[in-house]
């Protein structure tokens, strides 16, 4: 009875990977691949071998239906059954894949050792002498020790060359960005901010605190031909150094006809001795009534009194304000510097208070109190130079570096003097301080310290290179008594 066979037709686009996947889905003991008749399939002998192995791994036998001679030749060489048609595959017998020959183990020939010994050349007699063997062993020990001496030790050498400070002054012109196009000038920028401070002081002066309220009588005279109503609370003014206001205490009415008059009691609006005025000092009436009547006080007003208490005088207020402005000036530079980038320079004499936005005194003027507090808010501005502009000007005007020296770190730039010109520009003298050190020839350092004890190496370096502190030598291993012999064993760091 023929075994079940899975028939898989192949197409020109099939690859060894896709065919392997289709083989995995076949669950029959035989798998027959139908080669395309008119289209070429991109498979070679190695691919056929991979497919045959995969089929055997699945427990199936692989066969091919094709009339192409090259494919038949490769398949037969691999032991794969080849048929002319599917009918022939169903009727014909499938040849088994060629079995791999197993290698059988054979016992070695007993004469193999003798043959090996016969092929060896006899060792020279002198090489077996004890003296030669001892010398060879000693030479090997010396070679090993030499490698240890060369490769084992390592030294980290830190050198601290002497630092010199070089100072020079650069004169540059600074102006507004739009006007600083000259190659010798740098732009002058402006920065603004708002700053508030709070200061206080103990006061020693005395102030008059209003206590009693002045009273008196005024006489209203009718200037018209009609009657005039004067309501209670009508305000009248005293003509003195400062305006003193009084309020009528009752209503009054002037009958028609000119020169009709009436007297009405009044009281000062504000308490204090300022309400005591001489007779005939009250001459003005507030409101529309003032156009119809004339007013005067026949007798002086009286009753206004003050009491003296400790409080801030005008001079003390002015003094505290000066303290607050000085405080603003001192804090302004710190505030403005925090708003700028590192290296930007503020022109010292350019800092100014543009406007005092608010100032509040506690207690207010005319009030008693032993402690006076002032809160002041101001708008401040200053001119400054950007670090990039300063660096460019400094590099352009810097003197040449002495031969054999290097710059250490970043130069310190500071303003030495400033002169403001009438055209809004400024002439600046910029002081630059830079640290320099002599260049260290590493090859010479290695030559000086090679194979010396660390103490001697340090003394020798200090005698050749001026240093601000003795060199530091870290040996590995720490018990090693000499500096390494080779440059590979020494690392040099200059600080």
> What is the share of helical residues?
25-40%
- Outline type: elongated
Task: Give the N-terminus to C-terminus distance in angstroms.
Answer: 95 Å
**Content of β-strand:** 25-35%
Radius of gyration: 57 Å
Please state the structural category: alpha+beta
Count of strand segments: 25
Strand order of the largest sheet: 16-12-13-15-10-17
- Total of domains: 4
Q: Kindly report the average pLDDT value.
A: 84
Largest sheet: 6 strands, antiparallel
| Number of continuous helical runs | 10
Poorly predicted parts = 97-102, 178-184
Task: Describe the structure in your own words.
By secondary structure, the chain is an alpha+beta fold. The protein folds into four domains: 5-91, 2-Layer Sandwich (Transcription Regulator spoIIAA), CATH 3.30.750; 153-161 and 440-494, no CATH class; 167-205 and 311-432, no CATH class; 208-308, Elongation Factor Tu (Ef-tu), domain 3 (Beta Barrel). Helix content is 25%, strand content 35%. It has a six-stranded antiparallel sheet, with no helix packed on it. It has a four-stranded parallel sheet with strand order 1-2-3-4. Strands 7-6-23-22 form a four-stranded mixed sheet. α1 runs parallel beside α2. The protein is elongated. The relative contact order is 0.13. Residues 97-102 and 178-184 have low confidence and may be disordered.
């Amino acid at each position: 009875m023929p075994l079940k066979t899975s028939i898989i037709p192949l197409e020109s686009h099939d690859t060894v990977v896709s065919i392997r996947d289709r083989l995995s889905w076949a669950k029959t003991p035989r798998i027959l691949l139908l080669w395309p008749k008119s289209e070429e399939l991109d498979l070679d002998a190695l691919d056929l071998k991979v497919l045959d192995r995969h089929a055997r791994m699945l427990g199936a036998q692989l066969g091919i239906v094709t009339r192409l001679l090259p494919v038949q030749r490769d398949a037969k060489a691999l032991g794969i059954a080849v048929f002319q048609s599917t009918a022939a595959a169903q009727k014909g017998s499938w040849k088994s894949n060629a079995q791999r020959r197993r290698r059988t183990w054979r016992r070695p020939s007993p004469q193999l050792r003798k043959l090996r010994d016969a092929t060896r050349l006899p060792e020279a007699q002198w090489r077996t002498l004890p003296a030669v063997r001892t010398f060879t062993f000693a030479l090997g020990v010396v070679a090993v020790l030499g490698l240890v001496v060369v490769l084992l030790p390592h030294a980290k050498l830190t050198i601290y060359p002497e630092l010199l400070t070089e100072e020079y002054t650069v004169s540059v012109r600074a102006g507004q960005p739009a006007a600083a196009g000259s190659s010798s000038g740098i732009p002058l920028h402006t920065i603004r901010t708002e700053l508030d401070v709070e200061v206080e002081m103990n006061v020693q002066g005395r102030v008059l605190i209003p206590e009693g309220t002045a009273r008196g009588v005024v006489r209203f005279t009718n200037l018209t031909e009609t009657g005039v109503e004067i309501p209670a609370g009508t305000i009248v003014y005293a003509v003195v150094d400062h305006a003193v206001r009084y309020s009528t205490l009752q209503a009054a009415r002037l009958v028609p006809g000119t020169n009709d008059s009436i007297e009405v009691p009044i009281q000062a609006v504000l308490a204090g001795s300022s309400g005591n005025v001489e007779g005939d000092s009250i001459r003005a009436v507030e409101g529309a009534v003032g156009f119809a009547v004339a007013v005067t006080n026949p007798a002086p007003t009286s009753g206004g009194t003050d009491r003296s208490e400790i409080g801030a005088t005008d001079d003390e207020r002015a003094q505290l304000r000066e303290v607050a402005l000085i405080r603003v000036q001192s804090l302004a530079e710190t505030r403005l510097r925090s708003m700028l980038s590192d290296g930007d320079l503020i022109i010292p004499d350019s800092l100014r208070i543009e406007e005092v936005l608010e100032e509040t005194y506690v207690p207010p003027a005319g009030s008693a109190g032993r402690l006076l507090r002032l809160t002041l808010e101001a708008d401040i501005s200053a001119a400054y130079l950007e670090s990039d502009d300063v660096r460019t000007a400094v590099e352009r005007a810097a003197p040449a570096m002495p031969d054999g020296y290097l710059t250490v770190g970043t130069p310190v730039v500071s303003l030495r003097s400033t002169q403001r010109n009438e055209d809004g520009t400024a002439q600046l003298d910029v002081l630059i301080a830079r640290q320099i050190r002599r260049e260290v020839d590493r090859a010479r350092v290695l030559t000086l310290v090679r194979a010396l004890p660390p103490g001697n190496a340090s003394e020798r370096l200090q005698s050749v290179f001026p240093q601000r502190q003795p060199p530091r030598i870290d040996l590995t291993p720490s018990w090693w008594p000499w500096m390494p012999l080779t440059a590979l064993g020494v690392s040099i760091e200059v600080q």
